[in-house]
Amino acid sequence: MSGIEISELAVSQKRTSNALNRIRLWPFTLKLGILIVSMVILAGICAPLLTHYDPIKGDYNDALAPPSLQHPFGTDSYGRDLFARTLYAARLDLQIGLITTYFPFLLGLIVGAIGGYFGGWIDNVLMRVVDVAIAFPFMVLIIVIMVILGPGVQNMYIAIFLLGWTMYARLARAEMLVVREQEYIQAAKALGYGHFRIIFRHAVPNILTSSIIFSMSDLVLNILLASSISFLGLGVQPPTPEWGAIITEGRDFLLQAWWISTLPGIAIIITGLGFSFIGDGLARMLGQRNIQLV
Amino acid sequence: MIPALLGITIVAFLFIKLLPGDPLQIMTMGKATPAMIAAERARLGLDRPIWVQYGLFLVSIFHGNLGSSIIMNAPVMDIILKRMSATLFLVGYGAVLGVLITMPLAFISVLKSDRPLDGGIRVGGMLFLGMPSFWLGLLFMLLFGLKLKLFPISGWGKDFSGHLYSLFLPAMVIGLALAPVLIQSLRESMLDIMQTDFVEVARAKGLSPGRVLLKHVFRNAIIPTITILSVKIGWMVSSAVVIETVFSIPGMGLLLVKSVLTRDYPVIQGLTLLFGIIVMVVNLVADLSYAIIDPRINYQ
User: Fold this and answer.
1) Is the CB of B146 inside 8 Å of chain A's CB atoms?
2) Are B138 and A132 inside 8 Å of each other by CB?
3) Fewer C-beta within 10 Å: chain B N or C terminus?
4) Which residue of B has its CA nearest to A277?
């Protein structure tokens, strides 16, 4: 008895140092990725502390000023400081990335898990829908949905949501087909648990890994997608600062003011690199392949 | 194949149905009188049940009739067919450049796997994967088009060599974003195949590492790579839509973006249909090509 108590005490004391040790054992890319992404998040939150310029209101006397100490990224045709706009844009872009990735993630997971678990006609119907969604070029379908709904950020969320879940449904279904044959699922069935409980308590925790790893590269792609939609004039509307929208605004001044279109793009690349590193590190840690299908 | 084809037609059909407002009012831009609209409605069968309308839509597609453009006053089919070649050329060119970039880099990362050079290629890949295509396009345009004046910044040339020259920058943008995914998949499958017995045998026979890699490993690793390429075709067409807009290439993508701005709904509908069909045909070709590359696969 006492031996067990002592060892439990030792375990609880060790736990904090274990957690630290475990972080130390994480793959380097995972740590680097988390560092980069946290910096981007911090830059977005602390934007008012990092710059005193307003991202929306500009000074016309200062229009199209090249990069300098005062304006590290230069100013645009309205005299707005591009560094400030790029920083503030991090808020919206990260929000877009998270919303357009994890809402479809949830729906896809549920749909794929149910389809894979039951099989039969439910699975058939779901997979036909997924096939059609994947048969189309993503951008074309998004544009078509945006034409029906009208431009704007909210509608962009809806458009990406309507399509984004399909990849997750595919991944979750494929994993579920394997998991449902496992003995612990059979055991849960034999114990008389309901389907709902078996799917969401027993199976889903075991089919999450590949979706989570995929969601990292999906997040990068979604930020790119959203900025492309803004580039085509359907997404974020001016003067709201968003990386894609800022790049677009510089398009007409490419020769006079190269900095408008080029420098804010670096923010997208850094963010993308951060999430890609996290995905790579997670894949290494969990012993899985980094999935980049779409 | 058939369900996906039907799905594509359903999406294209629903597009016009789901537009807010009366489709005929939209189609005629409010210029027609009520009597004209009523006549047109009866002619198009819009007063009949929705499944009949869908049937009529299917029949007209089989006749190659996609209606006519509101703005350009020409049949939608003719307008789209005229622009199809530029888009197909761009996507094909981008795929070729992507594969050309992939080959040497994938070989290097297999030969030097888990060494700094391999890591460098991987990080470089992440860099290009996270780059917005229109941003890279604008950067290329600025550097190689406007500053160095090496390549034109718009249009797509007159003849084949003109296409190759004019579309180099836009195709390069597609190729550079495609290559990281291809390199990764080729690397993984080559590393897998390196573990198999027949590669061991080939090595034991005393074949040079380069020969083993090319003749034994690469040929077997190419199938998963083609799968990735065909899965990515939808993505490539998507980036073509954006790239055509950046470089003003008169293809289907630029037509789509312009039609959205002018609200030319019949053209948008026709483009939806044809974009879907193009992607499907490419996937079918990829499926069939497996049998040519790998004699073990047959579709009897």
Assistant:
1) yes
2) no
3) C
4) B126
At B120 the pLDDT is 92
Residue type, A261: S
Residues 1-20 of B with CB under 8 A from A: 3-4, 7-8, 10-11, 15, 18-20
b (16+ CB within 10 A) / e for B5-23: eebbbebbbbbbeebeeeb
Spatial distance between the Cα atoms of B162 and A150, rounded to a whole number of angstroms: 38
Residues of chain B with pLDDT under 70: 1, 23, 26-31, 44, 297-300
Q: Is A30:A278 a contact under the CB 8 Å cutoff?
A: yes
User: CB burial class (10 A; 0-12, 13-18, 19+) of residue B261?
Assistant: exposed
Residues A168, A169, A172, A174, CA torsion sign: negative
Instruction: Let me know: does B76 contact B66? Beta carbons within 8 Å.
Output: yes
Q: How many CB atoms lie within 10 A of CB B112?
A: 14
What is the mean predicted confidence (pLDDT) over A221-234? 92
C-alpha distance from residue A65 to each of A133, A143, A243, B64 (Å): 45, 35, 19, 54
Contact at 8 Å (CB) between A76 and A86? no
Q: Indicate the residue type of B116.
A: P
pLDDT tens per residue across span A49-105: 888 888 888 888 888 888 988 888 988 888 899 999 999 999 999 999 999 999 999
Taking the Cβ of residue B221 and every Cβ of chain A, the question of whether any pair is shorter than 8 Å is answered with no
Q: Distance (Å, rounded) from C-alpha B43 to C-alpha B37? A: 10
ipTM: 0.85
d(CA A202, CA B16): 44
